[in-house]
Amino acid sequence: MRRWGLPRPGRARDLVKAPGLWKALGVAGFLGVAATGAVIVRSERRRRSYTPEEIRERLHRRLEEAREERS
Questions:
Q1: Residues in contact with 18: Cβ distance below 8 Å, sequence separation at least 6, in sequence order
Q2: In angstroms, rounded to a whole number, what is the distance separating the alpha carbons of residues 5 and 25?
Q3: Staple partner for 20: which of 5, 40, 55, 56, CB 3.0–4.6 Å?
Q4: Distant-in-sequence, close-in-space partners of 31: CB < 8 Å, separation ≥ 6
Q5: What is the mean pLDDT of the chain?
Q6: Residue 19 and residue 5 in contact, taking contact as beta carbons nearer than 8 Å
C-alpha cells in the first residue's frame, strides 16, 4: 500500500506530482517554524524577567566561577 501517494521507486520525476508528499512536507515545515518561534518567545520571556541587578549579580557570580576553574 502506498501511503502518501508516492510513485513507484525509480520514478523521481513523479515525486513532483505527489500531492500527499508535498502536503505532509508543508505541514511539517509549518509546525517546525511554529515550534521554533515558541522556543524563542519562551527564552526571551525568561531573559526579560530578570531585573538588571539580578543579571549583574549572575554575571559576577559566573565570572568568579570561571576564574576559580582557571586556577
A1: 4, 5, 6, 7
A2: 13
A3: 5
A4: none
A5: 82
A6: yes
Residues 6+ apart with CB under 8 A from 21: 4, 5, 6, 15
The closest of 20, 25, 24, 26 to 6, measured between CA atoms, is 20
Cβ atoms 24, 4 nearer than 8 A: yes
pLDDT, residue 47, reads: 76
The pTM assigned to this predicted structure is: 0.42
The answer to whether 37 and 53 are in contact (CB under 8 A) is no
pLDDT tens per residue, range 18-29 = 778 888 889 999
State how far the Cα of 6 lies from the Cα of 15, in Å rounded to an integer: 7
Express as a percent the part of the chain with pLDDT over 90.
38
